[in-house]
Please model this.
Amino acid sequence: MEIVIVPSPEDGGRIAADIVCGAMENGARTLGLATGSSPLHTYRELIRRHRESGVSFAAMSAYLLDEYVGLTSDQPQSYAHTICTELVDHLDIDNARVFSPDGGASDPSEAARRYDAAIAENGPIDVQILGIGLNGHIGFNEPSSSLASRTRVKTLTERTRADNARFFADPADVPHHVITQGLGTISDARHLVLIANGARKAPAVRAAVEGPVSAFCPASVLQLHPHVTVIVDEAAAGELELAEFYRYTTEHKPASQGY
Model:
């Protein structure tokens, strides 16, 4: 696991975009996309490079991490709609190759199984972008999630629902359930890139990076993966015990070694 501490979220977005573009140059064809505030600087940087430098995403496919149960892709609060607004609509990627769980399915559990099978059939995902929740969740794998879990229906904690209430007209409208890639599904990706910004994320980052591997902090499963880059701004790195070591290793890494 490589921990990269950056001065600002914008700097983190540029590094994450470097990872995505470098992977594409080396033959990557599948991206895993997360919604939320953490990846936004990365997506803005990818859009900028597409518009100003001609970086093409035409050969790419993309898979979303999760979707609310009960929301269809045309509803503004759905993650399928959000990722189009924030990224896909601004690139040359084919919308038909951007996939998400079917939150409007009559049988959400079966929809989750189909989605997991589709990722397995067309993957592995080359670069998976991740954020982290205040309680250490990635995707919507809340604390107590199995570290080997597959895509399935999960119940959201009230804390997570409250964190997402700003996207809904009424907090009561936030769904109680989601379809989310499991921790095992996420771990199948070749390269995991977790982005966290702000002091509120510092305890979760510390638990994920330096704490024990435990279902209590689902993001700690990243410690078991062979290729992980964690990009945090100074505020999110504020509780890391080995912060100076991470800065040192980033500064002195071999020139031939990328992220």
In short: The chain has eight helices and ten strands. Helices lie at 9-25, 40-53, 79-86, 108-122, 158-164, 183-187, 202-210, 243-251.
